[in-house]
Design a protein that fits this description.
This protein has five helices and no strands. Helix 1 runs antiparallel to helix 2, helix 1 packs parallel to helix 3 and helix 2 runs parallel beside helix 5. By secondary structure, it is mainly alpha-helical.
Length: about 120
């Protein structure tokens, strides 16, 4: 039960922070969802750093990993909003933003994870 509570707390904090970033980075006039894009890339970087540090020296306990990685990063990032926003682009026939958003999110997300793992080597 303690582990479920840790995921719950981390997820709640991550979700609130995602909401605040989304409000700060409102969708631009072009319709590009900068808030979702930003949290997904930042979350990818953060999960790379956290997992790199955790795996480096077994420096995180299982509970810390559940709180920070599963909870916080899981609540902060959002695949469902990404999928919905892409559906909107397709429905509106906005193939340019669809391609930029999809390819940019996937490629930059992967690069951010690798960058996070690289950064974690200095800790």
């Amino acid at each position: 039960m303690k582990q479920v509570l840790l995921v719950f707390i981390g997820g709640g904090v991550g979700s609130v922070l995602r909401y605040m970033v989304g409000k700060f980075l409102k969708t631009s006039d072009s319709g590009f969802p900068w808030g979702t894009f930003s949290v997904n890339i930042l979350g990818s970087l953060l999960i790379g750093i956290l997992m790199g540090v955790a795996l480096k020296n077994s420096s995180f306990s299982e509970n810390q990993t559940l709180l920070l990685v599963t909870g916080f990063c899981g609540g902060f990032t959002t695949f469902s909003a990404f999928a919905y926003e892409n559906q909107v682009f397709l429905k509106e026939g906005d193939f340019t933003n669809f391609l930029i958003y999809t390819l940019g999110s996937i490629s930059l997300g992967l690069v951010a994870v690798f960058l996070g793992l690289f950064i974690s080597k200095s800790f």
